[in-house]
Design a protein that fits this description.
By secondary structure, the chain is an alpha+beta fold. The chain folds into 2 domains: 149 residues, Fructose-1,6-Bisphosphatase, subunit A, domain 1 (Fructose-1,6-Bisphosphatase, Chain A, domain 1, 2-Layer Sandwich); 113 residues, D-Maltodextrin-Binding Protein, domain 2 (3-Layer(aba) Sandwich). The chain contains 8 helices and 14 strands. The strands form 3 sheets. It has a 7-stranded mixed beta sheet, with helices on both faces. It is globular and about 45 Å long. It starts with a helix and ends in a 5-residue tail after the last helix. 43% of the residues are buried.
């Protein structure tokens, strides 16, 4: 992953956002929004068109790589199997936070990750509206905006009463939700943004201390964010203790600002392993 390749990937994401996503924000018609697995799992014309454009451009740029997007996998789940086995795989979430986007909430982004046999080597968490991004490779994590690039670090907070985190309670089976909720009161605040892109950005930049995933692992939501958190000084593992693997389909993932925070939070939610 040289600098020229990273710059080209960023340009592809920015172009797709400018052409296919921004013009449809708060301008979608009802026929441009549909559902996938359920009423809360939305897809819009912006998702499909942006993914198609990015996929074509990345295949031209990286002809030897497997390129898979969330919407392509939704249409053909067998594509999911390539993420863990491909020597180089580019994973795209064209509009992360689609529910927010479709409802006119300005909390969504584009996620792109490059993995090698399931291990993230490059991650991009792009804010469409602000045209800035958190970027991570195997050397560092940084925040990039019109002002330039700056290194980022995770939070040093370890006091439970001051910790802030993200827990998507609604993604867990109904039978587990009461137990999940019972573990939340000791923390300062626990919420969900319905947008992994911005949850990971805030975690990597030191504004919150942890983020828990649901039991079904979607690599397009997590691969880039995991690398950003790790390279900013945090840790990310599944609750069963296994290292992150983008090829894994099930398992609750916990990303945390430090090993101490990971151990504390993992212990509280160990029943979800």
């Amino acid at each position: 992953m040289n600098d020229d390749l990273k710059a080209a990937l960023i340009a592809i994401v920015r172009d797709a956002a400018r052409v296919h996503i921004l013009p449809r924000f708060r301008a979608l018609t009802p026929d441009q929004i549909s559902t996938k697995s359920g009423p809360g799992d939305l897809v819009t014309l912006a998702d499909t068109e942006a993914e198609t454009a990015m996929t074509a451009a990345i295949r031209d740029l990286m002809p030897g790589a497997v390129v898979v997007g969330e919407e392509a996998i939704a249409a053909d789940p067998a594509l999911r199997d390539q993420i863990g086995t491909a020597d180089t795989c580019v994973i795209i979430d064209p509009v992360d936070g689609t529910w927010n986007f479709a409802k006119g909430l300005s909390l969504f982004g584009v996620i792109l990750a490059v993995t090698r046999r399931g291990v993230p080597v490059y991650g991009l968490l792009y804010d469409v509206l602000m045209d800035d991004w958190v970027e991570a490779d195997l050397d560092a994590a940084r925040f990039v905006s019109a002002r330039g690039a700056a290194p980022i670090r995770t939070s040093a907070e370890t006091r439970v009463a001051r910790m802030v985190g993200y827990v998507p309670v609604g993604l867990f089976p109904r039978a587990q939700r009461a137990a999940v909720l019972a573990e939340l009161p000791p923390f300062s605040r626990v919420t969900s943004l319905r947008c992994a892109c911005h949850e990971y950005r805030l975690l990597a930049q030191g504004h919150v201390e942890f983020a828990l995933s649901g039991p079904v692992h979607n690599a397009w939501d997590h691969a880039a964010g995991v690398l950003a958190v790790q390279m900013a000084g945090g840790v990310a593992r599944f609750l069963d203790g296994q290292d992150y693997d983008a090829g894994r389909v099930r398992g609750v993932l916990l990303a945390a600002s430090s090993e101490a925070v990971w151990q504390d939070v993992a212990g509280r939610f160990s029943f979800l392993r």
